[in-house]
Amino acid sequence: MEIFKVYFTASDLKVIAPELVLTIFALSILVLSVFVKTGRRNLLGYIAVIGVVVAFFSLLLGIGKDMKAFYDTVSTDPFSFFFKMMFLIIALLTILASLEYTRRENIDFGEYYVLVLFATVGMMLMASGFNLIVIFLGLEVMSISIYVLAGIMREDKRSVEAAFKYFLLGAFASAFLLYGIALTYASTGTLDLGGISRVLTQRVWISSLSILITGLALLIIGFGFKIALVPFHMWTPDVYEGAPTSITAFMATGVKAAGFAAFVRVFFYALPTLQTYWTETMWILAVATMTVGNIIALYQTNIKRMLAYSSIAHAGYIMVAFVAGNDLGKASILFYLLAYVFMNIGAFTVVILLGKKGEENTLLPDYSGVGFKHPLLAASMSIFLLSLAGVPPMAGFMAKFYVFSAAVKAKYYWLAVIGVLNSAVAVYYYLRVLIYMYFREPEKEVVIETFSPAAVLAVIISVWGVLHIGILPSTFLALAQRSVQIFL
Amino acid sequence: MNQLGFPILTTVTFLPLAGALLLVFIPKGREELLKRTCLVISLIEFAVSLPLFIYFDEEKAGMQFVERIPWIKEWGVTYFVGIDGISILLILLTTFITVLCILSSWTAVQKRIKEYMISFLLLETGMIGAFVALDLILFYVFWEVMLIPMYLIIGVWGGPRRIYAAIKFFLYTMAGSVLMLVAIIALYFLHGKATGEYTFDLLKLYQVTIPLKTQYIMFAAFALAFAIKVPMFPFHTWLPDAHVEAPTAGSVILAGILLKLGTYGFIRFAIPLFPGAAFKAIPVISILALIGIIYGALVSMMQDDLKKLVAFSSVSHLGFVMLGMFAFNVQGVQGSIYQMLNHGVSTGALFLIVGMVYERRHTRLIADFGGLSRVMPIFATFFMIVTLSSIALPGTNGFVGEFLILLGTFKANPVYGVFGATGVILAAAYMLWMFQRVMFGDIRHPENKDLKDLNLREIITLVPIVIMIIWMGVFPKFFFKKMDLSVQHFLYDVKSRYAGKQTSYLEKRPPVDKALEALSIKLVDIKE
Fold first, then answer.
1. For residue B442, what are the domain limits?
2. How many CA within 13 A on the CB side of residue A421?
3. What is the pLDDT of residues B173-216, one digit of tens each?
4. Pairs across A and B, CB distance < 8 A
5. What is the sign, positive or negative, of the torsion defined by CA atoms of B96, B231, B158, B445?
6. Which residue from B minimizes the CA distance to A427?
7. What is the value of pTM for the model shown?
């Protein structure tokens, strides 16, 4: 029974070094959490931060060594490097934002940090997976961790509802994805992305085209659920609103970015020959996602819910680049996600800082008068929101500019026009927050309940990211462009 | 590259930003210090901008004080700034008006002075940046950046309906400009495909030949963005709201500078980039401008609120600017640019004057006044001069501008000229009628009996304006000689490209004296 023996070498392990580091740290935190008293569990958070930093360095060590491992199921290449870097930034910012917050909300369990790290491992696997099964495994590792995290506020009905809803619908979506993988396998005979691409270019698949197209559709649904495309977005608002704010930030950025990583890799690496089949569907999805997300966001009064709908709309903008599908488009997906990470986590961190125990203080009127009471915090929030709205010189503008350039270059003029009009509509709801912060007198005393230096650090890093990408984007552009060269 | 050997345009652009950063470190409570520092910064800024005027070489038609540094190499975006005879005067107007705005806010703004002053300085950076930018993306960035401080100025320090006005202002401008962004991107790829060089450099983009149909669409996208800003009828509805709700200095800067960015956008971007479409659009733009002139004037006549009256008069005045520009002859375009400056000075002054009355009486209704000239003689004098300038009395700046515009328009199309001229009469009617109701007659309201006349600070604010009004009125040559060549070159360039002769702005352009020769021939053509 030779085939059951697993062979792997040290060089295989090197490929997944960052994932291994995170796993080791996660397991150690799990053990340590037994010994650390309640109330001092921030220590575990700091260990998690160290874990992320170490993982980052182990990632840097692997720069430039493109290789595949574990029988070509996992690959390190510039593409996975870009996303892994992004996930580590997301994890770092999330943990920083969580440190005091978890204590305030009584969810400072060791498991909290463990699950965040595990979810990050899952995301990284999704980005580096070179085999449909590995991608699926990564997705499940991530999803299951997130299901638990969403419901970690056991006492809070909304949190439990969020977890349950997310789990039920997520399980459904996973089934769709798996079915899609199965049909793809059935028609091509391989799960390896390179293999699928080779089979498809050899055109021996024509006989099983209908199966393949069905598989394609199911894959779109499966990924579409994770990145919350309309009409697979129904779970998003409730889950984002109910989950702890730090986890909402994590989901809105990490899960979405991971979903896009796998989506882009599978579609542009394995299935580019089918581009003619999916472009129109994607066009419709992009327009629907932008428009529905923005229009519903106009009516929200809860800031978490508003940001949830806005994150749907942002997925729509990214889909514009996906439709364009050219080199510019692929690079702009990566660039957009990076910009989006900073501005979105930043905004959620400010929400955390201004929040009160029991997830209070997340309604728009609660922000009245914050602008002059906490000028720096409000200024940061304005930077994040204006960036989300796409106003220069913030990162969001450069990202949108890039995305719409890709659409114009691919001659999708209407798509670009619909996109920019959408972003003009979106300005309204972002400005509403500014209206409350600056133009209204405070209705009640605005106090920051728990001042958290770590969360402030997260805000500072985010502001830096937003402004750096917005004013001097060259480094990040070059990085994004290099990362998508694997698709050439 | 630069006749001063010093990055003067960058200094002028970012000095207010540096000043704003300085203000951040002054504690909130030190209000006097904040105001004084801000005033000093704006004065330094004005002083720094003066060398631009002095060292500006009026013998050259091209861009001057040019600075060019690659910004985003991957996209071909450069930090490319420079000015010519068209933008130089607008920059000086900006630095000049800002000083007056800060002076006028001395007592009018009571709360959150620090944030107010910071917003103003940020706004100044945005405006000057938009005037000097010669890279489309750089321009777009400044164009949008301006919105944020102006939004805050209206929204925080404005009147009762300020929130509505602020958001309307922001959304109108934003909605107009996003389509321009798409057109910019499309233009970029068009030029890139044609020449192989992907760049947002305006001067290079001037040279690209665009099929007429594409030009129409792109011109429409650009024109919409600028027409909203101007504002041209029927996109003017945000203006009265924004003006009425904004604090005095906000209105001044809005009328004085921000609206000029719309007209400047036409002359710098929309027309020279798409000359074919621009010439075809003459009837549309001219008729809209005429409607704006007459409609604005008629609506002004009916206003019972002073500030609204001035706001609608802006619609009328800016109609003149557009009319002159689209006459496409030297008189029309020069008059148009001159009228931009005039409007900045005189309408700015009108808003200041309304603000001064409002500070004393906390009302702006015309019916609440009457006979003010008896109690406020100094005020009455200033008000009269500014009013006369606004109705274009000979000897004031307004006359020079409107006269040239009408001259140009009559040459281009007498019918437009006739309708345009009625605007001058209507302007006299509504302004003088308003002046009569506010200043003359008996004092009907006892509150008006012991109104204080202008204090020293207010006089200092208004004196420079009056000097400018008369200076620009009796000695216009001083200003015209700066823009002369640029305007002629603009017309030569646009017309020759419209006629199908592809002359490039930079390389194929004959040396200056030859250009002049060619121009004189062209001018004869125009005169016929």
1. 290-475
2. 11
3. 888 888 999 999 999 998 888 888 888 988 888 888 888 888 89
4. 82
5. positive
6. B171
7. 0.91
